[in-house]
Each structure stands twice: as C-alpha cells, then as structure tokens.
Backbone:
C-alpha cells in the first residue's frame, strides 16, 4: 500500500518539477544558513563558518540530483528523455525515417494481411456454440478416404448413436433452388438440412423458429429457413413474411425462420430448406454431409468406434454395398479444407519478406550510426553508460517500428480487401477474415520484435566501440571501419539469400499457373457458353417430358442466329464432374472382395461431342437410332480404352455400370473419343464413359439438372438472352443458373493456383525491391566512404573502367554469395511447395537458374549507379578533403 | 556500496522517525544535528542522504511537512510525525531491537557452546 502511494506521488511529481525544484533549493539554503549560524555561534569567523558548513554538507548539486531521483521516477524520465531525443533525431533525418518506416510498413503490412487470412480461416473458432465439439462423419474404407453418407447410413446413425447430443445431415447445392413467384425465376444457392441441423450448431433464428422434428419426416410440412440477406432482398425485411410461402423448384415451402445477419455456413447459402429422408431401399447413392455435436466427455475416437459399429450394421442390411468404417473429423477441418497448406506457405514467404525489410532497416541504421560514432563517443566520454547508449538506440528503432506498425496496419487493411477481392472463391470462411484483436496483437508483436532485431545490431556495435579510437579518428567524417563493412556485407548477403528463396517460390508457382493454363482440356473452349437448367419435379416426372423439353429447347437454341451447335450434359469440364459409377466388363468377372473401379459417367445429348469439339477416334457417336428403350450404348474416352482394353478394339464390347446385376442390362461400347479433363486441369487424364441422356437407365432420374452448352460466335449476353428466351418460351418458371463462358470456367478452375501465384509474385516483387534498395544503399555508402581512396587511385593513374569494375565486383560478389546461400536454402525449402505445384518440379533447374540470374543482374544494375559515381570522382576534390 | 547504503537508509529513516517523536516538529537541519548529537558524533549526516530520506518518508505518508519559521526567523520546512509514522516507528523499533538482540546472542562469547 505504502509503496503504491509513494509510486503515485512520484508519478504526479513528474509533472510539477519547477516548483519542487525551487522548494528544495530553498530548503537546502535554510539548512546551510542554519549550519553557518551555529558555526558562528561556536566562534568561527564568517568565512570559516561558511567553509566548514559547505565541507560538512557535501555538494549541493549532488544532493539536489539524488533528491530528484527520490522524488520522481528516474527510469521513466530517462525513457521520456530518450523518446524525445529519438523523435528529434528521426525528424532531423526525414529521408532515413521515411525509407525505414515505409520499408517496415510494407513488411509488417504484408504479414498482417496474410496473418488476418490465416487467423480468419484457420485460427478463429467456428462461429457456433461450443465449436470444439462439432464434428463431421465420413465413411472410410478401401479406396475411400472421406466418403459422404447415404440416407441409409445417416438414418441408422441418427436412430442408434449414443455418443452425440444430436446429429444432422445436409446437402449443399451450389447450383441452388429455382425461386419462382418473386419476380422472374431465379436460382438461389442453398443447402438442404435435416431438422436438427441448427440445434446441432447451436444457432437460433433471429426471427421465427427452427425446424420441428415432424417437418423432417417424409410427408411433413415443407418448410424453409432463409438467410438475413434473402429476407431483406426478397421478403422486404418484413417480419410478417415468417409464415408465408415461397415456391422453390416448383413446390411450396413455408418460411418459418430468418437466420441472424452474421450467420455463415459454407459459401453463399441463402436458403435452408428442410431435408426429408425417405427410408432407403438400397445403400447408395452417397450424397449427405453430416455434422454432429459430441456429448461432453466423449472423444472423437469413441464416437468413431460407435459410428463404425452402426456402419457395419448397415452393411449387414445391404450386403452388396462396400464394407466401411466411420471416421470422425473436426468440423473445422472440413470447413478449412486443404487451404491451410497454401496459407502456411504464404505466411512463411511473407515472413521472409519481413526479414528482408528488417535487414534493410538494420543496414540503414548501421550506415547512419557510422556517422553517429562520434556522437556516441562524446556521450560516453561525458559519462553515459553502455546500457544507456543501447537504450537510446533501441528507443529510436522501436519508435521506427511502431510507426511502421501503424502504417503497416493501414497497408494490411487494404491488403486484406485486395486479397478477398482477388479470390473470393479460393478461400473458405471469407466472412471471418477481418482485422481483429488477435491480428492487432500480432502486428504489435512483430513490430516490436522487428524493432528490437534491427535496432540491436547497430546498438551493440556502436556502443561497443572504444571511445578513444572514435575520438582519435582524425578524418573529417568518422567512419565505421572494416568490421562494420563486413557487417554491412553480411546483411546484404542475408538479404539476397532471403530474396532468392521468395523469388524461387514465386517462380515455381507462376510456372505452375502457366503450365495449368496451357493444359489442353481436350476440346475447343472458345465461343462456348454454358448454363445450368433444373427441371422441377412437380412438372417433369416422366422420360418423355424430359426428352421432349430438351429436344425442343435445343431445337430453338440451334435456330437462334449465330449459334453453331448446342447440346446438354450432366458434367462439365474442366472440373464439374457430377457422378462416378463402378463398371464391370462382360466376360471379365470382378475380383471378389475388391470393389469395382468407379469412373466418371456422363449423360450427354447426341451433339455434345460436336458442340465441344471432342474428336472421335474409333467407332461412332450417339445418334437418334439409340433412342429405343431397349438399346443401351456407351462412348468411352481414349484413356479408358487404353487402360481397360489394351491391345484390343473396345468397340462392340459390353459393360455394365453401377452395382453388378447378372440379369441387368449390358451397354455396348460404340465409340472412343478424345480425353477431356473433368476433375481439374491439374489432374491426369481419367477414364470416362458417356451415355445418351435419354437412355432408359438414366432418364428421367438423373437428368433433372443439366448443363446446356452452346457454341456461338455471338457475344455472351446475346447467347444467354437467346437461351433464356428459348427456355421461357417452353416454360416460364425456369431459371438459368451458373451462366459462364467455357473460358471463364477454365479461368475459375485455377483460382487457387492463381491466388497463390499472384500473392507470391507480389511478395517476390517486394523482396526484390527491398533487396535492390539494400544493395544500392550499401554500395552508395561504401563509395562515399572511399571517395578519398578512389581519388588517390585515379590520381595515380587507375583507369576509370578499373574503378567501375572494382565497385561492381564488390557488389556483385556480395550478391553472388547471397544467391549461393539462398540457392541451398531454397532447394531445401521448395519441397514444402511440392503439393502446390503442377507441371514443374520443386527443384526445377530452369526456374532456379532463371531466378538466380535475374537476381544477380538486378544486383549489378543496383550497383551500377554508385559505381558510376565512383568513376566520376575528381581526384583533386577527393584529395582536398584531407 | 549499494548494500551498505540500504542499511544506512533503513536505519536513517528509523532515526528520523525517533527524533521527530522525541522532539516534535523539526526542520531538516535540526534533525541532522539531533542525530549527530545522539550518536555521540559518531555519525555524520549530510544532506545528500538526509533529504532524499525525508522525501521518501513523506511519500510513504509517515511524516508530513509544512513551511514555518525557525527560532532565528528563517523560513524552514518543518517535518512532523503522522499517525502512520508513529505506528511505523513502533514496528520498526521493535524489529530493530529483535535484530540487535539476536545478533548480540551470536556475538556474545562463550554462550554458544552452552
């Protein structure tokens, strides 16, 4: 208590110095006078009395000093003093301060921006109640890592499990639901969920209520919960809209609730219709994602054991299905997906950029402290301790770092916005990427650490040099001498090593992007427009309804001016494969216990191959003769022909798809076409089967959602409006979704690679500029310092090209050493990138050589200016310096 | 140096408090003289140590100060003991007596073996 009271008084005393100084002077004066009077009384003469008193009492100034120390807080006052002095120094050297602060702001800003992304995507807990207990369940078996569940699996789990508080299934539809009755028909993205979905997450609608159990059962009232955004846009933010009905896919749903404004689950979900699961007659198809809330005290392993048991029971019920376990994955892992690897690599790269910035500022600091050697020498001669000097320098660098941090925050703010705008689809959880408290703390921390890092090097050096030497140095400007030049050199080498690592990473990722973009997708992508059409269940049920709709539609589209060809397909290149199916070759029995291989199977219109420009290698394409319900034909791709029918003609062979059925229909292979990428441009060619969409095994069940592809030389808008009016002329309740040109699809399919390449490229650019500034600064400094020496050399007859060479060689060898070290480091680190690369090896010699050569030439270019200046040294001027 | 000073500072504070208790309000010079006299001139108090000690005691609330006039009409700052100071004096005096007693036992010859 007493100490605290004293502390407050002492802090208060900091602000009342003047008056207190006068008071203590008066008090001491009284003391002295009283003493003198006593001495007089003791019989001394006045002079002697005064002398004795002064001797006895010691120095008045020392007393005042120690009195002051007791009165205030000397440590704090020193700090203030350092602070004021540092601010004065930094203001005096605006150029230095500006460059240092900008450099740091870029470094810190880039780091903060990337950290914001990492924080939002990976670190923040999911925005639901007790998110740590939310998990997702997957089937896991041979050839199946994270398989989604079918209705049989989920219903059994929901009924029999004992380890979860609740489980729910959901089925996202990025395509969405056809909304009619509110303006023109539109596709609204949404996710079907079972009745417990929101209570599993612990989310209450902001308006209305959650689903009732009865609504989740087949035959229950169809209800839907909508997003806040949907409610504002389509329901005019009217609270009484809860309870009204909207038409989705041609069926009436009651709006029972509106979600909170800040609720997010997966990308772009506006509608949450109830998912009613029918008791299944077979185990497939597998199409349900799951979420469960673990009971307190139940581990993921226990939950997986319990759920696996249920999976075994389901298999006993459906013995033809695959034997699987159930695995439990934290919900967050599912949400974050595989983006964490790329993010961590980016964070590492941007960390390197910050290191370069730090080295740069340390270098600047060091150059400047060279001209301050005398200042420090004088200060330490006057009694400043080594600690005091280091503190002074650290204060300066911390102020710089703080300024850099504040400015960096602004950079980060803009950076985060740019990153989000750059690639909205390349990242999960984008809504949660913000500059929050944790990000601010991170910025403060790195600013402080960088401040100490770049401040310490010069601080230790200048404070360590012996006073006498610096004062004795007779030259006009005190110089740093050899050891400092070595330190400068070491810093430049470090900088180039770091820059090479970042540049190599950028080089590899940029090459990956260009390789991906030059992949042949297997068809002609120009002048193709695609859109998705969903035929609602209510009005389209039988095969003839579907075929007649599609035939009429395609007929009208083909008759639109400018259209060269049009067709339909269930899956689209380059990465929209909707379905894979096991297949069995006639006369080649499956290996028992081994699940049959599943390959992509795509229902298409007869003109699909012609529309996309996919070449036919053997046999024939589909024709109208295949329409008979008894005919079953397939076209396979070249990869499938080579892999499963090596050295033979597959045309005429028969296969069965789906579960093997001895009495089932056999499909005859009639043709072999070229390979097309359906699983991403970066994937190897995969076997693919095509089946006519009107095939009786597929129509009408699987052809409700089909992509329309149109080849036309006209502008995209014209094609789309033609398509739209053709569709509406047949059915005015239909909406086109996912309207894209094929070139857009190709572009979007490499969004992740582009995102990484662009960010890495930006970081590499930063690294390059910083390294350039670094080597330029050091060489300019070195030339300036050696003006005298160079002058003598020129006076003695050195050729100017010799001087140029000397300087260039000096800078070049530093850069070369840095590049050499960086080469080794990059070689070791580039392996971490290998998962993100395509078409280029992690140690690709071409990239490495090109980057090294580029960096070296940049270094030489940066050295050229100072070298030129060196050759222009006038020997007379240089000599007169002395 | 540091250690010695601390002990000195501690005992000086105690002496100041005791002096103020014995003589009532007193200025710095009076306190210094009284301590020197009491110690039989074995101690010399200079104001380099006295005034910071007085300030510290005041900051801690054990003494308070007031400007007044001395016997021979000089403006002087008078210090007096506060209630907290009195308590602190009792406490410290007791502790000090205990310490010296313990030390005395250690230093007294012969008794150790008993």
Residues:
């Amino acid at each position: 208590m007493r100490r605290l009271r004293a502390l407050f008084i002492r802090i208060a005393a900091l602000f009342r110095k003047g008056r207190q100084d006068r008071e203590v002077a008066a008090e001491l004066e009284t003391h002295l006078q009283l003493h003198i009077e006593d001495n007089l009384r003791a019989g001394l003469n006045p002079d002697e009395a005064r002398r004795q008193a002064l001797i006895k009492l010691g120095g008045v100034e020392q007393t005042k000093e120690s009195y002051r120390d007791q009165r205030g807080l000397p440590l704090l006052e020193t700090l203030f003093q350092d602070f004021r002095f540092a601010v004065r120094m930094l203001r005096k050297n605006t150029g230095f301060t500006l460059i240092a602060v900008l450099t740091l702001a870029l470094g810190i800003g880039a780091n903060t921006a990337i950290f914001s992304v990492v924080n939002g995507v990976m670190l923040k807990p999911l925005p639901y109640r007790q998110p740590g207990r939310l998990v997702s369940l997957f089937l896991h078996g041979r050839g199946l890592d994270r398989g989604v569940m079918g209705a049989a699996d989920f219903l059994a789990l929901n009924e029999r499990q004992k380890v979860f508080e609740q489980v729910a299934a959901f089925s996202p539809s990025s395509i969405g639901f056809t909304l009619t009755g509110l303006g023109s028909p539109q596709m609204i993205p949404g996710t079907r969920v079972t009745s417990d979905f929101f209570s599993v997450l612990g989310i209450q609608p902001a308006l209305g209520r959650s689903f009732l159990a009865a609504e989740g059962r087949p035959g229950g009232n169809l209800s839907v919960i909508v997003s806040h955004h949907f409610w504002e846009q389509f329901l005019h933010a009217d609270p009484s809209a809860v309870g009204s009905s909207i038409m989705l896919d041609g069926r009436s749903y009651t709006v029972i609730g509106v979600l909170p404004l800040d609720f997010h689950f997966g990308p772009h979900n506006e509608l949450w219709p109830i998912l009613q699961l029918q008791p299944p007659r077979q185990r497939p198809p597998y199409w349900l994602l799951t979420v469960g809330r673990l009971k307190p005290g139940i581990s993921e392993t226990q939950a997986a054991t319990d759920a696996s048991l249920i999976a075994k029971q389901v298999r006993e019920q459906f013995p033809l299905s695959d034997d699987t376990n159930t695995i439990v994955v934290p919900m967050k892992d599912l949400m974050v997906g595989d983006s964490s690897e790329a993010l961590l690599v980016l964070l590492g790269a941007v960390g390197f950029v910050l290191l370069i910035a730090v080295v740069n500022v340390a270098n600047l600091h060091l150059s400047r402290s060279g001209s301050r050697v005398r200042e420090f020498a004088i200060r330490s001669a006057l009694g400043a301790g080594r600690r005091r000097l280091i503190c002074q320098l650290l204060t300066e660098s911390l102020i710089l770092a703080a300024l850099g941090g504040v400015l960096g925050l602004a950079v980060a703010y803009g950076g985060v916005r740019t990153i989000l705008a750059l690639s909205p689809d390349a990242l999960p959880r984008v809504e949660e990427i913000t500059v929050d408290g944790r990000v601010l703390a991170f910025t403060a921390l790195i600013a402080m650490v960088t401040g100490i890092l770049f401040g310490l090097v010069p601080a230790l050096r200048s404070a360590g040099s012996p006073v006498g030497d610096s004062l004795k140095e007779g030259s006009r400007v005190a110089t740093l001498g050899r050891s400092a030049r070595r330190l400068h050199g070491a810093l430049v080498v470090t900088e180039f090593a770091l820059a090479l690592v970042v540049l190599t990473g950028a080089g590899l990722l940029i090459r990956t992007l260009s390789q991906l973009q030059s992949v042949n997708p297997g068809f002609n992508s120009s002048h193709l427009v695609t859109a998705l059409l969903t035929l609602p269940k209510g009005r389209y049920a039988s095969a003839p309804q579907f075929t007649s709709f599609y035939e009429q539609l395609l007929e009208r589209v083909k008759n639109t001016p400018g259209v060269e060809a049009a067709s339909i397909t269930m899956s689209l290149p380059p990465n929209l494969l909707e379905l894979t199916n096991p297949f069995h070759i006639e006369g080649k029995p499956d290996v028992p216990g081994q699940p049959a291989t599943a390959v992509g199977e795509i229902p298409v219109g007869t003109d699909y191959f012609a529309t996309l420009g996919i070449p036919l290698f053997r046999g024939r394409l589909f024709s109208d003769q295949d329409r008979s319900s008894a005919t079953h034909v397939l076209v396979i791709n070249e990869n499938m022909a080579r892999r499963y029918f090596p050295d033979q003609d597959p045309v005429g062979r028969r296969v069965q798809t789906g579960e093997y059925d001895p009495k089932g229909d056999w499909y005859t292979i009639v043709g072999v076409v070229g390979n097309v990428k359906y699983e991403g441009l970066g994937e190897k060619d995969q076997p693919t089967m095509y089946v006519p969409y009107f095939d009786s095994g597929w129509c009408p069940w699987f052809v409700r959602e089909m992509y329309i592809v149109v080849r036309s030389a006209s502008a995209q808008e014209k094609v789309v409006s033609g398509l739209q009016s053709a569709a509406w002329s047949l059915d005015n309740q239909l909406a086109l979704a996912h309207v894209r040109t094929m070139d857009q699809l190709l572009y979007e399919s490499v969004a992740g690679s582009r995102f990484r390449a662009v960010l890495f490229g930006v970081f590499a650019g930063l690294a390059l500029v910083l390294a350039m500034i670094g080597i330029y600064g050091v060489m300019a400094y070195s030339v300036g310092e050696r003006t005298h020496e160079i002058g003598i050399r020129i006076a003695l007859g050195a050729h100017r090209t010799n001087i140029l060479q000397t300087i260039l060689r000096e800078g070049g060898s530093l850069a070369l050493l840095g590049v050499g070290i960086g080469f080794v480091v990059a070689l070791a680190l580039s392996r971490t990138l290998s998962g993100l690369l395509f078409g280029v090896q992690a140690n690709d010699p071409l990239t490495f050589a090109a980057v090294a050569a580029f960096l070296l030439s940049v270094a030489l270019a940066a050295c050229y200016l100072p070298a030129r200046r060196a050759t222009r040294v006038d020997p007379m001027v240089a000599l007169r310096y002395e | 140096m540091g250690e010695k000073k601390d002990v000195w500072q501690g005992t000086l504070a105690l002496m100041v408090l005791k002096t103020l208790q014995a003589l009532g309000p007193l200025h710095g010079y009076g306190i210094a003289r009284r301590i020197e006299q009491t110690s039989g001139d074995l101690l010399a108090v200079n104001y380099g140590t006295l005034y910071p000690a007085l300030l510290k005691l005041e900051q801690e609330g054990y003494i308070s100060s007031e400007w007044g006039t001395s016997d021979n009409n000089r403006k002087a700052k008078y210090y007096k003991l506060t209630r907290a100071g009195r308590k602190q004096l009792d406490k410290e005096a007791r502790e000090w007596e205990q310490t010296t007693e313990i030390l005395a036992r250690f230093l007294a010859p012969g008794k150790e073996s008993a």
